[in-house]
Amino acid sequence: MEKDRISSMGNYIINQGKVTTKELSNKFNISIVTVRRDLDKLEKNNVITKIYGGAKAKSDKLQTFEQRKNLNSDSKNHIINLAKNHINNGDRIFIDSGTTTENLLNYLDENIHLTVFTNNLSVINRAAIMKNVNLFVVGDYYNKTSNSFTYWSKVSTLESFNINKAFMCTSGLTIKDGLTNKNPIEQEIKSKMCRLSNKIYLLIDDSKIGKTSLMTYAKLSDIDVLITNKHINQEYIDYLNEHNIKFEF
Questions:
Q1: What is the rounded distance in angstroms from the CA atom of residue 133 to the CA atom of residue 90?
Q2: DSSP bridge partners of 49
């Protein structure tokens, strides 16, 4: 699909830093004319800058999970302390692949009864040793950059499960673009879990609010609770109130 190709192209340029149109033509098996059209769309979305004979990324390469997990650690711990209060005995929850959510289970009573769906390797390792947790691993391909599993085969039976709560992370959040993500290969799982869950909790530190990234996986109006580490500006407060979205910090 064109949308998938453009997203993959954006991710490729971000990781390469700088590319030529010929390189993109060969990489994605498309004509130079199509490459230029795709680059126009990526530039419009503030992902790349077109240069003579090619394009360069506007942002740095995707950071590894280990690099990202040490950023804003105090803020993330504060957010998890709030989020844990929304998890009850018997819940069926999805825990996203971000660094903010990776320690969520560590803050819970080890005897709690849960069904956990996750593609986050750190969460999988923790859930595996919790005696009353039923664990479902989402995805079949391990991606080292995000420390998460994604779909390689494009086969999913998730639609048959009833999930009451999803604890989501995001690379950026704006009112216009909603919840955005830098990594296109995680896109399918993030979007699908938001559609399947009865209630969506967004766990986001203040450094990401007001920023946008490569792909939108959910609208801001889709979430039920926004949990962050400090008060946010009035524009967002007004939007949350208008859409009956709870806010905690």
A1: 9
A2: 56
Answer for the pair 178, 222: CB distance below 8 angstroms, yes or no. yes
Question: Nearest CA to 151 among 196, 102, 184, 122?
Answer: 184
Residue 69 has pLDDT above 70, yes or no: no
Smallest Cα–Cα separation from 99: which of 84, 129, 79, 115? 79
Cα separations in angstroms, 166 against 19, 59, 71, 152: 37, 28, 23, 22
CA 203 distance to own-chain centroid: 10
- CB neighbour class for 4 (10 Å; exposed up to 12, middle 13-18, buried from 19): exposed
The confidence score (pLDDT) of residue 54 equals: 93
pLDDT digits (tens, 9 = 90+) for 124-137: 999 999 999 999 99
Give pTM, 2 decimals.
0.74
Which pLDDT belongs to residue 65? 45
pLDDT surpasses 50 at 85: yes
Strand partners, 50: 55
Distance CA 171, CA 145 (A): 14
CA 191 to chain centre: 9
Q: Which two tokens stand for residue 105?
A: 């289970």
Helices (H), 29-133: 32-44, 65-69, 73-83, 121-127
Cα R_g (the chain), whole angstroms: 19
| Residue type at position 86 | H
pLDDT one-digit tens code per residue, 90-119: 999 999 988 889 899 999 999 999 999 999
Token pair recorded at residue 60: 């740095």
Q: For the chain, what is the largest distance between any 2 Cα atoms, rounded to a whole number of angstroms? A: 60
Report whether 151 contacts 189 (CB < 8 A): yes
